[in-house]
Amino acid sequence: MKHIHVCLISEQTIPNILGIFYFKPEEVLFITTEQMLKREKTEAIVNTLKRLGLNIPFFEIVVREDSIYDCHRKIAQWMEKHEEDNFTVNLTCGTKIMSIATYEIFKDYGSKMIYIPIPKNEFFEVYPLKKLSEPQPLPLRLGVIEYLTAYSLRVINEAKLNRYKEESEKRKALTNWIVTNYNSIEGLLSEFYKVLQKSRNVSSFDLTIEFPISNELQRDFLKAVGFNISGRTISKRLSRSEIRYLTGGWLEEYVFNSLNSIKGRGIDDVVMNVEIENIQGNKNEFDVMFTKDNALYFVECKSLSPEDEITKSSLYKIGALQKEFGLRVQSFFVTTSPHIIKDGQIRQSVRARAEQFKTEIIKPDEIVNFETIIRKKLKIMEE
């Protein structure tokens, strides 16, 4: 006699992952459809569970999602070989027809059946019937890579993510200094962006430019980064990491460090510079992603980009990923660019685009308070 956990497959994969991880059955039965087979939803669930340390044998039944007769017939046929087993059933996903058929069959076996109200991390026992069914907490919290895996997205550069984290932590003091003194060094950073933006992916770059240092903070910054200064001439052999840092990576690292400082105290996981690929082979890179309570958030950062890149490339990238995931993906757009501001307010065209993609804009004068803003938006209490 085995414990088999039954799942109905649909676009949402997280509820099934939470249920399987909670019950830790000996085997799993996935009831799916042809459409979900093409989208590799079962594989996404199984691969996520493997990342979580669960390698559970599974069965798969393919039904017509609009035919209660087909659902009944195929489930009942499978059950003929498993009548002596014990079952728990997650009714959260699938179509209504699939849920009705599954409920009717497993009710006859006295099976425990649950429902997870998305997006809550808890379940209700809907059968056997009880007068009062108190919600039971689901303790699992997915990290970023587990979440992406659950939606059939592959992280291409997973091996590099820890190095990005280490580099960000080493530069944390300098990054905080840049944010605090940004107005005084903006001209210098703008010059770096103009000269280096097309060389962000080269392994190294010998930079020599003429720049009129106008204040001591600019000089302090150049010394901190390791530049040679001779009159108006500044020079340095830059690594790829340094090139990316000087062309906007400092802003990404500031956002990452702010979120990483509350990891485990409100934020479950955070990574930066994530390169992902979907099952169609389309690839994209995202600045910062983090998870909280099994919801995914991401932050797009732009420092000194032109206005058309702000309103088109960045916000459309946010929209593309939201379409990939669905409504639970929430986003923030952090920028130092003055192009988004008019008369002290966010430009209407930019605001409209952000609202279209359900994106919160962090204005240039708000960046220094990014952690406080995130805490307030996500209702994370100060310790």
Automatic annotation (TrEMBL):
Tell me the Pfam families matching this sequence: Card1_endonuc (PF09002), CARF_Card1 (PF23400)
Residue intervals of the Card1 endonuclease domain: 242-377
Extract the InterPro entries matched here.
Card1_endonucl_dom, CARF_Card1, Restrct_endonuc-II-like, tRNA_endonuc-like_dom_sf
Show where the Card1 CARF domain sits. Answer: 4-134
Q: Which GO terms describe its molecular function?
A: nucleic acid binding
- Entry protein name: DUF1887 domain-containing protein
Q: What is the lineage of its organism?
A: Bacteria, Pseudomonadati, Nitrospirota, Thermodesulfovibrionia, Thermodesulfovibrionales
